[in-house]
């Protein structure tokens, strides 16, 4: 397939490289990032998007996605797939899909889970929204870049699944960090705490796969001085998206709201910016109740 790839940062770079390594002809465009091996550099987003069977975007937010979409949709070939893998708000995803469909394109919102490691290893999970025809066209590419792709429903459904997942992740990470900080104060050894919780009803991905305590559990950003991984500011972005969606759909999400406020304080007023989102543990460790 001829593929255009726009946004080759921490996630997009390795995803594009995997498509090229699988034998696809990939033309990339990024404002700053270097092209990964096997990807040909295009001079603009529209040059990357022209005459392609599929165009994939992996961009920072909904505003940038909207700007790029309005540049490329008109030059894309009819029947081509426009696959957006960025994490953006549901409304932006739906607007882009509507504009793309009006030009005869097959639109899929397909945010991912699995982080930079999953992008490099080709083990991402894709959660997709769009028509069955659009999903079918994108699926072979998801199979190269990931290990699982779930067709969640119509346009926007992929983003809806993503922000619900990440709201759970933000809440469980805070809960796990709080519990470790409490365990410390109760004089409980961290390894013992992990051994119990990881096999008891308090287990979660945050505890078992991404343990926020250094030297405990499988290797995680905690073992690298909390270098991301998944940055606290990206978690804040996703929690904000969840609360924006909760507001527009009148959903009661008190823990999601509280998690967003905690990450906002951590990123904007404390030293959380640029750290992994699991660095909530040293934050709680330093604090008392007052
Ligand atoms: P990143 O900042 O590393 O990459 C974004 C890239 O987009 C950058 O290289 C930037 O130069 C480029 N870009 C920005 N504006 C552009 C434009 N107008 N035209 C072309 N290129 C442009 O971010 P990332 O970590 O790769 O994340 C990308 C998306 O994936 C985000 O929406 C993020 O929320 C989501 N995501 C990230 C992770 C993660 O662990 N990093 C996990 C899941 C989802």
Automatic annotation (TrEMBL):
Which GO molecular function, any one, fits this protein according to its record? Answer: NAD binding
List keywords of the entry alphabetically. Branched-chain amino acid catabolism, NAD, Oxidoreductase
Enzyme Commission number(s) from the entry: 1.1.1.31
Tell me any Pfam family this protein matches.
Answer: NAD_binding_11
- Where would I find the 6-phosphogluconate dehydrogenase NADP-binding domain in this sequence? 2-153
Identify the residues that the record assigns to the 3-hydroxyisobutyrate dehydrogenase-like NAD-binding domain, covering every copy.
Answer: 156-281
Q: Which reaction does it catalyse?
A: 3-hydroxy-2-methylpropanoate + NAD(+) = 2-methyl-3-oxopropanoate + NADH + H(+)
Please list the GO biological process terms of this entry: branched-chain amino acid catabolic process
Question: Its pathway?
Answer: Amino-acid degradation; L-valine degradation
Sorted alphabetically, which InterPro entries does this protein's record hold?
3-OH-isobutyrate_DH-rel_CS, 6-PGluconate_DH-like_C_sf, 6PGD_dom2, 6PGDH_NADP-bd, HIBADH, HIBADH-like_NADP-bd, HIBADH-related, NAD(P)-bd_dom_sf
Active-site residues per Swiss-Prot or TrEMBL entry: 162
Family membership, please give it. Belongs to the HIBADH-related family.
Name of the molecule in the record: 3-hydroxyisobutyrate dehydrogenase
Q: Which organism is it from?
A: Neptunicoccus cionae
């Amino acid at each position: 397939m001829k593929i255009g790839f726009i946004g080759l940062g921490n996630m997009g770079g390795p995803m594009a490289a995997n498509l090229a390594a699988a034998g696809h002809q990939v033309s990339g465009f990024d404002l700053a990032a270097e092209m990964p091996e096997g990807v040909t550099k295009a001079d603009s987003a529209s040059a990357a998007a022209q005459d392609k069977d599929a165009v994939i975007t992996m961009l920072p937010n909904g505003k940038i996605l909207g700007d790029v979409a309005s540049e490329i949709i008109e030059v894309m070939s009819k029947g081509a797939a426009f696959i957006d893998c960025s994490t953006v708000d549901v409304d932006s995803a739906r607007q882009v899909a509507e504009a793309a469909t009006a030009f005869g394109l097959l639109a899929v919102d397909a945010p991912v889970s699995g982080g930079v490691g999953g992008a490099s290893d080709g083990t991402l999970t894709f959660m997709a929204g769009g028509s069955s025809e659009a999903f079918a066209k994108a699926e072979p590419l998801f199979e190269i870049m990931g290990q699982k792709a779930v067709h969640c429903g119509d346009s926007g459904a992929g983003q809806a699944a993503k922000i619900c997942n990440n709201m759970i992740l933000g809440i469980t990470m805070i809960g796990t960090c709080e519990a470790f900080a409490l365990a410390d104060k109760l004089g409980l050894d961290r390894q013992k705490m992990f051994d119990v919780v990881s096999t008891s009803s308090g287990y979660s991905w945050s505890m078992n796969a991404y343990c926020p305590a250094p030297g405990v559990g499988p290797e995680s950003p905690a073992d690298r001085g909390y270098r991301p991984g998944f940055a606290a500011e990206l978690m804040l972005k996703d929690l904000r998206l969840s609360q924006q969606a909760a507001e527009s759909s009148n959903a009661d999400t008190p823990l999601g709201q509280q998690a967003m406020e905690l990450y906002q304080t951590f990123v904007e007023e404390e030293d959380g910016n640029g750290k992994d989102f699991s660095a909530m543990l040293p934050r709680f460790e330093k604090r008392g109740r007052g």
